[in-house]
From TrEMBL:
Species whose genome carries this gene: Paraburkholderia saeva
Gene name of the record: iolD_1
Residue ranges of domain Thiamine pyrophosphate enzyme central in the record: 237-369
Classification of source organism: Bacteria, Pseudomonadati, Pseudomonadota, Betaproteobacteria, Burkholderiales
Protein name, entry field: 3D-(3,5/4)-trihydroxycyclohexane-1,2-dione hydrolase
Residue ranges annotated for the Thiamine pyrophosphate enzyme TPP-binding domain, each copy included: 441-595
Pfam family membership, one: TPP_enzyme_M
Length: 640
């Protein structure tokens, strides 16, 4: 007798919620949470910077307005004054949170979208997460060409947003509301994966933003995000331990991955246990406290004599969380003889410099490698030399940044960057642990890399992967939003200030106080010096050397300009007056700018290294011929 056929039970339908694509995107963003180091929970997205236009005001704008008042999952919207600048602020926010929290940015189509390209490139180079949500043209193409639309005769699918493809770690164009169900998890993985991390661009056609769809309600459930990072493999770990054990003169280079991987404690323990000297990249500065005995300071082109001395003598270089870019390696001329062990979450970065690869996030790699090494330590002579070199450099830094009595002819001499770096840090008794310095391009990053005493992690925030002029003030705003309890001091040259300064007004509007120090050397002083170093004549960099009309170059009143944007501001004439102004700035209730004229020619002579900048093989200038010979000599030192 045949068994009775099983009774088929009806499948329960999953509850759905009808939302526009933009509403769904915003609600999903608000539902993502992270666990902070203290065990508390916070939204993954700290907010959305928005400048509205016809491409995003109706769809994304309406969705953001509704979500900002949600009692359970609020998502604040912040208005800015420039799309590139607000993306810089969002990127700086993520960097200040060591990639554990982030922000999104939304723009209209056209210039709003293309203004994001520079910021996206900066995030890409620096491996920092930001979610870019530019509006896009109509999928229906009913009103083509819509206002601001880019038309490409040979490819109708191309829009302005395609310019973002090359500078995005993940790119998608949402052409149907249901697409979010697959796209958003992929985007989140890129934003929270140590190996993949970088900018994500989701182009949002304006008609699709407004289109409704029945989404699974579970898609918007509050959830804790898990961050992904690789652990070391046994085989790579064993080979790395053998390499280090065989070293006589090892040097560790601390890169940004130490900070982003929350590996500062692991680094300190590793260094102390095995007595390995440390040098710091721009992104890694502050990974080890400035007064740690084996911290030899900055490495490379902008490096200290201590770190560069140890690098030239090292037989093994352990690069932890570093991209090993040319400023770190001296264009591959600083330690070409050394074997390199590259510890990095990104496999792409572990094969540079013909390195031995240990593909892993920094903390598990250092802990595991230390366990493999057990009680192995560097030789006594190397340890002694490193301690002495580091101690000598700290003494030099103290002298360079000390308060010096001004007498005689020195009274008429303009200060240079070291004088003001010292004055900033003297203006607060606990500056290394209290202040966050923000900078990006020009002479200042070199001086700060050498001379800033970085204490509490995150106290040194210099964007030097893309070396992007204009990042400084916008970046400072993002840092302050992330770390409101700390004093954020933006140090910026006049050239960068003039490129981008509008977020002074945003900082005043948001109550996000910055102290902005403008060092006015009346031009692009850094490139002017480089121009002459490669044999060129001073030309088109300093205002005095530029083509001018009958009225000449303007004397910019930076303090008056900042006051016009709502900040408090003053101009000072000397270091003593600057120190007094710093006290007023620290006590001020809102953003405070101090401008001061500085010496355009003087820099810190100590330290530094060769950097490859191609010099013309032929020229009418004898200076170029001399520079070319020096260039060829430098190239002889490069890793072959």
């Amino acid at each position: 007798m045949n068994a009775p056929a099983p009774t088929l039970q009806p499948v329960a339908m999953q509850p759905t919620v009808r939302l526009t694509m933009a509403q769904a995107l915003v609600r999903w963003m608000a539902a993502q949470f992270v666990t902070l180091p203290d065990g508390s929970e916070a939204p993954l997205f700290g907010g959305v910077f928005a400048i509205f236009g016809h491409g995003n005001v109706a769809g994304v704008g309406e969705a953001l307005h509704a979500q900002r008042d949600d009692p359970h999952l609020p998502l604040p919207t912040l208005r800015a004054h420039n799309e590139q600048a607000m993306a810089h602020s969002a990127i700086a926010y993520a960097k200040a949170h060591f990639r554990r929290r982030m922000m999104a940015v939304t723009t209209s189509i056209g210039p709003g979208a293309t203004n994001l390209v520079t910021a996206a490139a900066l995030a890409h180079v620096n491996r920092l997460p930001v979610l870019l949500l530019p509006g896009d043209t109509f999928v229906s193409r009913a009103p083509d060409p819509v206002l601001q639309q880019i038309e490409v005769p040979h490819d109708a699918t191309v829009t302005a947003n395609d310019a973002l493809r090359a500078v995005s770690r993940y790119f998608d164009r949402i052409v149907h509301p249901a697409q979010l169900l697959g796209t958003l998890p992929r985007a989140l993985r890129v934003l929270t994966d140590a190996a993949l991390c970088g900018p994500v661009t989701l182009a949002l056609p304006q008609d699709v933003q407004a289109a409704a769809y029945d989404y699974p309600a579970s898609f918007f459930a509050r959830r804790l995000v898990i961050f992904h990072a690789p652990a070391p493999s046994a085989a790579e770990l064993q080979r790395a331990a053998e390499l280090v054990r065989g070293a006589h003169r090892p040097l560790l280079i601390a890169g940004g991955g130490v900070l982003y991987g929350h590996a500062t404690d692991a680094l300190a323990a590793f260094v102390r246990r095995h007595r390995i000297p440390v040098a710091e990249t721009q992104a890694g500065k502050g990974a080890l406290n400035w007064d740690e005995p084996l911290n030899c300071g900055a490495i490379g082109v902008t490096g200290s004599p201590a770190a560069n001395q140890m690098a030239t003598q090292a037989d093994v270089v352990i690069a932890v969380g570093s991209r090993l870019q040319d400023f770190t390696t001296g264009s591959h001329s600083l330690f070409p003889h050394a074997r390199v062990l590259a510890i990095n979450a990104s496999a792409f970065d572990t094969v540079k410099c013909d390195a031995f690869a240990l593909c892993s996030d920094a903390a598990p790699a250092l802990d595991a490698l230390s366990a493999q090494l057990r009680d192995w330590q560097t030789e006594a002579a190397w340890h002694h030399d490193a301690l002495q070199a580091a101690d000598r450099w700290r003494s030099i830094v103290s002298n360079l940044t000390a308060q010096h009595a001004v007498t005689g002819t020195d009274a008429a001499r303009l200060p240079y960057d070291a004088d003001l770096i010292g004055a900033v840090q003297r203006s607060h008794a606990d500056s290394p642990a209290h202040d966050i310095v923000v900078c990006a391009a020009g002479t200042l990053p070199a001086e700060l890399h050498k001379l800033w005493r970085a204490g509490a992690r995150g106290g040194y925030h210099v964007e030097y992967g893309f070396s992007c002029m204009g990042y400084e003030i916008a970046g400072g705003l993002g840092v302050k939003l992330a770390r409101p309890e700390r004093e954020v001091i933006v140090m910026v040259g006049d050239g960068s200030y003039l490129m981008m300064n509008s977020e002074i007004a945003t900082s005043v509007m948001l109550g996000a106080k910055l102290i902005i120090v403008v060092l006015d050397n009346r031009g692009y002083g850094c490139i002017n010096r480089l121009q002459q170093a490669v044999g060129g004549a001073p030309f088109n960099n300093m205002l005095a050397d530029c083509l001018q009309g009958p009225h000449g170059a303007p004397a910019t009143d930076f303090a008056a300009h900042a006051r016009a944007l709502g900040a408090l501001a003053e101009h000072v004439d000397n270091v003593a007056a600057f120190e007094a102004a710093m006290q007023r700035a620290r006590a001020a209730p809102r953003t405070y700018l101090i401008s001061i004229d500085t010496d355009a020619a003087r820099t810190t002579a100590e330290g530094g290294w060769w950097w490859e900048v191609a010099v013309p093989q032929t020229s009418a200038r004898a200076q170029v011929h001399a520079a070319y010979e020096a260039y060829l000599a430098g190239k002889q030192q490069q890793r072959r």
